Amino acid sequence: MTLCLVGMPGSGKSTVGRQLARSLNWRFVDSDVEIERQLGHSIREHFERFGEASFRDVEQAVIVQLIASTESLVLATGGGAVLRPANRAALHSPGCQVVYLRTQVEDLLRRLRHDTQRPLLQGTDPGARLRELFTVRDPLYREVAHHTVDTGRLPVHTVVNLILMQLELGGTVCPAV
Questions:
Q1: Average model confidence (pLDDT) for the chain?
Q2: DSSP of 134-149
Q3: Which value, in Å, is the radius of gyration of the alpha carbons in the chain?
Q4: CA atoms of 136 and 90, how far apart (whole Å)
Q5: What is the DSSP string of the chain?
Q6: pLDDT tens digits, 109-162
Q7: What was the pLDDT predicted at 70?
Q8: Is 171 exposed, middle or buried (0-12, 13-18, 19+ CB in 10 A)?
């Protein structure tokens, strides 16, 4: 079973994913960390040297590989993973459940205001860029999601508990977890 977290940059996929994996006693993988490990350099550097299309090719291969894994894992995907139809199809593979961590643009701006590592947000107006990304991506996140959790200003443990509750109600994990 693979539990995939999708959402905008800054929605908490990695932070929530780590804690969720601990709660489930599953392995946690951040697709961006795995991509950097395979590339041997940062995503930002890859964007600068080879462009976004090249990065998306690598991202697709990594996501397909991780979802095909036979171990139980929580996978935090990159914010743009849903842009590729092949990734959306992989997220609907048997044995994969997708949780959309939905976060309003204002909350994302507050969380990301000092972040210099996200290539798509480096510009003169990160707020406008986030709104633009949200407009394109929100329908795609909704399309792939089996469950949606509005994160807002909720503490991480509350978001994790909301996810676990939805998974229990859906029969994905047993209530004993």
A1: 89
A2: HHHHHHHHHHH-SEEE
A3: 15
A4: 20
A5: -EEEEE-STTSSHHHHHHHHHHHHT-EEEEHHHHHHHHHTS-HHHHHHHH-HHHHHHHHHHHHHHHHT-SS-EEEEPPTTGGGSHHHHHHHTSTTEEEEEEE--HHHHHHHHTT----GGG-SS-HHHHHHHHHHHHHHHHHHH-SEEEE-TT--HHHHHHHHHHHHHHTTSS-TT-
A6: 776 665 555 545 556 677 788 899 899 999 999 999 999 999 988 999 999 999
A7: 85
A8: exposed
Which tokens sit at 22?
């601990």
Q: Cβ distance 103 to 55 under 8 Å? A: no
Measured from the Cβ of residue 173, the count of other Cβ atoms closer than 10 Å reads: 19
* 3-class SS of residue 76: strand
Q: Which two tokens stand for residue 134?
A: 């949200």
Amino acid at 65: Q
